[in-house]
Amino acid sequence: MQDVTKTLTTRASRRGVLKGSAALGLGTLAASSLGSRFAAAQDEPGSLEVFSWWTSPGEAPALQALFDAYLAKYPGTEIINAAVAGGAGVNAVAVLQTRLQGNQPPDSWQTHVGHELVDQYVVPGYCEPITDIYESEKWADVIPAGLVEQATWESNQYSIPVGVHRGNGFWFNKQVMKDNGIEVGDTMTVDEFFAAADILQKAGIPALALATKDTFAAAQTFENTLLGAVGPDTYRALFKGEAPWDSPEVRAAAETYAKMLDYVNPDHSALTWDGATALIIEGKAGFNSMGDWAYGEFVSKNAVDNVGWVSHPGTNGSFVLVVDSFTLPKGAPNAENAKRWLRVVGSKEAQEAFNPLKGSIPPRTDVNREIFSPYHQWSMDSFAKDALVPSCAHSQASSPAFKQAFYDASLAFVTDKDVDTYIAMLSDAQAMDAETTS
Amino acid sequence: MAVTSPSIPQEIARPVAGLRRQRFTLERALSPLLLAPSAVAIFVFVYGFIVYTFYVSLSNWKSAKPDLSLRRPVGVIYADLFSQTRFQIDLRNTVVFTIMFLILAVLGGLALAILLDRHVPASGFFRSVFLFPYALSFITTGVAWSWIFNPETGINLLFDAAGINRLLAAFGTGPLKPGWITDPAVIWQLNGPLATVFPAVGDWSLKLGVPVAMIPVAMAAAWQLSGFAMAMFLAGLGTISNEVREAAALDGASDFRLYKDVIIPLLNPITVSVLIILTHVSLKIFDLIFAMSGKGPGFATDVPGIFVYEMIFRAQRYNLGAAAAIVMLASVALVIVPYLARQLKSL
């Protein structure tokens, strides 16, 4: 409720500000200010409302960097930051949907690419295609095709990616590994993980830090394990509904996940994801399967020198995409500014300013690598050469209904480890999805 | 009637009667007029949206784009809903939570009220202290209690500090370390015994029993609302006159018998009101549990409120979420409607 009120007041005050600036107007005549509402695009910078869920200490400055890049090109624009707090957009999406259903869109909003973009916004008719901007800015030349495809529906592009997170990170505390005589190389297989897990278990340390209070980590750890077990092609096919969930390969993945769950911290259901990264920082757990926003936690707690990373066991050679992008709404109040905004956030300069602060890597591959941390340079190498696959836990690989079923099945599985029920729930969800889309 | 009374001359009686009639009609016209805005608002925003929600539950709306066409066969969504294991678990959790919460909150509130009624020193101060949790937001208390009942950070550290675990170790048993809100166990399962009577129960994936993680949640909710029950009982105790107590005392009733046989039966109407009000709070509970334990391990603390929220705003299965909301409304109505009917009859 509070979030809704906040957005509403933002909109109300925006009108007030508009009127106020029209009245004072830096020496403009009263008569011309009357016309400014209609001819804003040509003469006056006007305003731009950007909707996102970037409010945390790591996110807000990154968003500001995008605003600064915009203002450097189009000074004087009044930017309205309509951000709604809540990790992964849990609250923002509900607010945005209410606004869209009420025909009150912002000038641009943040969304993950893939199914979140297509199912929630493009198919219902809330977005304009931006294929012409893609062509004029030559974005397809600098953004990997596997990612452009995720922003595409029926051969038109609908959003411009601004930051890429890698979902299949496997983080560990170097000191804990050293103390227990565990060598971690550049990659890790499933067997290597279990060997390390047995050593840690003997030392009384949970080998896998898990946090399931906000559910997504239960789903994400499984999708990473699944990717490791079946490989990127079958993984994509599963989420597209082109491969069955009740196959021996998926069953093997679930069995591996069940075995991994024998090594988790017992209080996982009381922790949110940052609680699990804290276990790594404090040396109270061995490994944490998490997207690289965890890296931001390690940096902010001054623990980054003691933290190492590999790809989630078995997923070396794949890159799980968790990509933020911006859209062009149908009926944007300031359509011209919205298009300018998209050009700006797709530019090299803006992406170089945004990503080091956000802790992600730019979708553009023509950026200056030197301004990024060693981890992010590693991630950029993976992004350039590995198989790019969408994340279901982060709404990109499936419809929202399937994602919810995937979450629910994973959350139940973490407790009961019942492979048969898990496979049956996922198969049912796939059947339900096929029925909905047909 | 005064008009027909022969003792009053007609010329006096008539204007009086006329005046009365006039005032009466003005009042008659005024009160519906004053009530109209709120009546309209309630009909649109409460009853209108209840009807709309019910309609949505029967529709095909299950994506971001509203689709209000009727889904055939009509009402099949309710079969979908009740066949979902998660929703079955939610219903079980609601029943278990409601029972535990009512017992704790009502007994707690009654005990506090009786203690304060016995003129302890600074009873006014304690009354405020006990009522205060009721004034807090459920989110605030939910977060605080989630820390308390986290097995790694909360009350378990107190067990260590108090030396309980050292004592237990001396007896050769393991340390006392309950999982609290992280314990996925379901105790007192009825599936086995029921299956001997109804063999179909054997196939259920729902475990009929008490989810252990729900116990600390019920404790937190009772902590928050026992102050409210106490305030209600205190008001009731205030209406019991001293003569009753003195009469009981003269008859030689002990304090225990005084409360058991005289005062608590006299409080019955209050008890019913408290039970009804707390039951509807309990059936609709969302924020406390959402902040405290979330869905819990294996949905051990999931409730229909969280189900509705996730189905509508996360899964975008608007029809399924609306159906669950209607089931919640029906369950609350089951409790509230007989109560209101009784209240209205007694007016």
Write the layout of secondary structure elements.
The complex is a heterodimer of chains A (438) and B (347).
Chain A: H1 2-24, H2 30-35, H3 40-43, E1 47-51, H4 60-73, E2 78-81, H5 92-101, E3 108-112, H6 115-122, H7 131-137, H8 139-142, H9 145-148, E4 152-153, E5 156-157, E6 159-166, E7 169-173, H10 174-179, H11 190-202, E8 208-209, H12 216-240, H13 248-260, H14 273-281, E9 287-290, H15 293-300, E10 307-311, E11 318-327, H16 335-345, H17 348-358, H18 374-385, E12 387-390, H19 400-416, H20 419-437
Parallel strand pairs in A: 1-2, 1-3, 8-9, 11-12
Antiparallel strand pairs in A: 3-11, 4-5, 6-11, 7-9, 7-10
Chain B: H1 10-57, H2 76-83, H3 85-117, H4 123-135, H5 138-148, H6 155-161, H7 164-170, E1 186-187, H8 191-197, E2 210-211, H9 214-239, H10 242-250, H11 255-266, H12 268-283, H13 287-292, H14 304-314, H15 318-346
Antiparallel strand pairs in B: 1-2
Helix pairs in contact in B: 1-15, 2-15, 3-4, 3-9, 3-12, 4-9, 9-12, 10-11, 12-15, 14-15
- Number of structural units classed as domains of chain B: 2
Q: Sum up the overall morphology of chain A in one term.
A: globular
Mean pLDDT of chain B: 87
The CATH architecture of the largest domain in chain B can be given as Orthogonal Bundle
Most strands sheet of chain A:
6 strands, mixed
Question: Any idea of the CATH class of the largest domain in chain B?
Answer: Mainly Alpha
Quick one: CATH class of the largest domain in chain A? Alpha Beta
Task: Walk me through this protein's architecture.
The complex is a heterodimer of chains A (438) and B (347). With 438 residues, chain A is an alpha/beta fold. Chain A has 2 domains: 2-162 and 325-367, Periplasmic binding protein-like II (D-Maltodextrin-Binding Protein, domain 2), CATH 3.40.190; 169-314 and 399-437, Periplasmic binding protein-like II (D-Maltodextrin-Binding Protein, domain 2, 3-Layer(aba) Sandwich), CATH 3.40.190. Helices cover 51% and strands 13% of the residues of chain A. Chain A has 20 helices and 12 strands. In chain A, strands 1, 2, 3, 6, 11 and 12 form a 6-stranded mixed sheet that branches. Mean pLDDT of chain A is 88; it is low at 1-42. In chain B, helix 10 (242-250) packs antiparallel against helix 11 (255-266). Chain B is globular, with a radius of gyration of 27 Å. With 347 residues, chain B is mainly α. Chain B has helices at 10-57, 76-83, 85-117, 123-135, 138-148, 155-161, 164-170, 191-197, 214-239, 242-250, 255-266, 268-283, 287-292, 304-314, 318-346; strands spanning 186-187, 210-211. The A-B interface holds A 90, 93-94, 97, 100-101, 119-121, 123-126, 212-215, 266-270, 399-401, 403-405, 407-408, 411-412, 414-416, 421, 436 and B 62-66, 85-86, 146, 149-152, 179, 181-182, 184, 205, 213, 293-300, 310-311, 313-317.
